[in-house]
């Protein structure tokens, strides 16, 4: 949990302020010298002194050998002078080449020098094109992912219980965080809109008719009829006085009271007998009539225009009532509380099932070539889609980033990283030049002899 929080905070700090913050961070990276950069710069200066010292050494050797030759020291001085002279030429040529990468030699605005500061933006464009052509092509992405074998490695990692526990915990934390961030009003609005749009777009009467027809054909409604009739019988037994009073209250005022009581008693007994027989007789005519009514109603729901229109009006009225929206709100609140509680409980059925599913998936990914092939194919297709669809955006990130760097600071930083190796070019040029000069002078003397 702490790790996720820290990563989120770092992401928020990085992304806060949008592109300007990202550009500023990139600019700081290329303008601030870290202690490691300072150490590299000191190493470059030491190598520069070494290369320059070697150049001065061969210059001194050339001067001394030339003086010795004029003083009659012998023929060997000509060989030494030729080697030293060629060494100086090689050292100076390589010094010019190395210096021209970063600045104008001796401060002179010679064409095609100070390449890095002057061609920084072009180098960024070329680097972006190079990355796009050689690293973001479909063939390279597929070949690289296929060689890595992500599915088998991921499966072997996921099949270990401790890793499955970790992934389950991370998923639970992410789920809990997402549900915490979501506002109830927004979710309720989305759910309500989805239900209303779905209900308005599709007529429900035919579907209800088919469902009712199937229930009646299978006899699934009989239990509901048994329950209703049984409850009606019990209600009549408990409220006999209420039924009698209702019948007597509806009698004309001119009838005698004893007649009203007799009629009420008779109506109650007949009603109780009817309900009792309907409860105890599965083949009661009223049950058959109810079956026929439900079958006809199911047919009307599917084919009768007037019935279907009335059902649609009723549907609109029901969906428009505030009680229905309150029901949606209460259902979402209860569902969210249940999911959050299950995500927090390590022994909840939700987390146990997720963990078991991850272990099973990991085992299949590690040992089933068919599963590996499918998952690798999905990953390759996804990666290819990303690089082919967003290749321009990816490469523009490189070019735009390089374009935003300060030329002088960029030059200093690049020189700090590669300048030490470039000084070896000067040293090698001095040594190779000296050897080449010695060889050329030796061949020339031999041919002249």
UniProtKB/TrEMBL annotation:
Pfam families registered for this protein in UniProt: DUF445 (PF04286)
UniProt-listed InterPro entries: DUF445 (IPR007383)
TM helices/strands, residue ranges: 49-70
Transmembrane helix is among the record's keywords: yes
Region (Disordered): 1-27
Domain of life per record: Bacteria
Protein name: DUF445 domain-containing protein
Native organism: Streptomyces thermogriseus
């Amino acid at each position: 949990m702490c790790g996720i929080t820290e990563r989120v905070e770092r992401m928020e700090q990085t992304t806060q302020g949008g592109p300007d913050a990202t550009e500023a961070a990139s600019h700081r990276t290329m303008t601030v010298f870290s202690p490691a950069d300072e150490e590299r710069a000191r190493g470059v200066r030491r190598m520069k002194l070494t290369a320059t010292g070697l150049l001065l050494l061969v210059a001194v050797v050339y001067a001394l050998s030339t003086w010795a030759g004029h003083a009659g020291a012998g023929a060997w001085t000509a060989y030494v002078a030729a080697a030293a002279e060629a060494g100086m030429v090689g050292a100076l040529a390589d010094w010019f080449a190395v210096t021209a990468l970063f600045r104008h030699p001796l401060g002179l605005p010679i064409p095609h020098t100070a390449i890095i500061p002057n061609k920084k933006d072009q180098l960024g464009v070329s680097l972006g094109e190079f990355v796009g052509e050689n690293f973001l092509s479909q063939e390279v992405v597929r070949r690289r992912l296929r060689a890595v074998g992500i599915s088998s490695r991921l499966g072997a990692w996921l099949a270990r219980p401790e890793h499955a526990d970790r992934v389950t915990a991370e998923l639970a934390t992410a789920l809990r965080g997402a549900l915490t961030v979501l506002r109830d009003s927004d979710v309720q609005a989305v759910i309500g809109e989805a239900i209303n749009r779905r209900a308005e777009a599709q007529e429900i009467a035919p579907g209800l008719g088919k469902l009712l027809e199937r229930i009646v054909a299978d006899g699934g409604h009989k239990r509901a009829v048994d329950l209703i009739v049984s409850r009606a019988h019990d209600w009549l037994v408990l409220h006999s006085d209420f039924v009698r009073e209702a019948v007597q209250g509806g009698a004309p005022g001119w009838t005698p009271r004893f007649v009203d009581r007799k009629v009420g008693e008779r109506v109650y007994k007949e009603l109780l007998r009817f309900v009792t027989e309907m409860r105890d007789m599965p083949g009661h005519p009223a049950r058959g009539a109810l079956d026929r009514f439900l079958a006809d109603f199911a047919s009307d729901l599917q084919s009768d225009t007037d019935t279907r229109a009335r059902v649609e009006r009723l549907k609109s009225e029901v969906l428009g009532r505030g009680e229905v929206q309150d029901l949606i709100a209460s259902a979402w609140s209860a569902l969210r509380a249940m999911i959050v509680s299950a995500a927090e409980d390590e022994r909840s059925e939700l987390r146990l099932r997720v963990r078991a599913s991850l272990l099973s998936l990991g085992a299949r990914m590690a040992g089933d070539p068919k599963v590996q092939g499918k998952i690798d194919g999905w990953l390759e297709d996804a990666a290819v889609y990303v690089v082919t669809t967003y290749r321009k955006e990816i490469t523009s990130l490189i070019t735009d980033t390089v374009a935003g760097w300060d030329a002088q600071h960029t030059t200093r930083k690049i020189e700090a990283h590669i300048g030490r190796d470039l000084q070896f070019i000067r040293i090698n040029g001095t040594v190779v030049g000296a050897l080449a000069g010695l060889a050329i002078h030796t061949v020339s003397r031999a041919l002249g002899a």
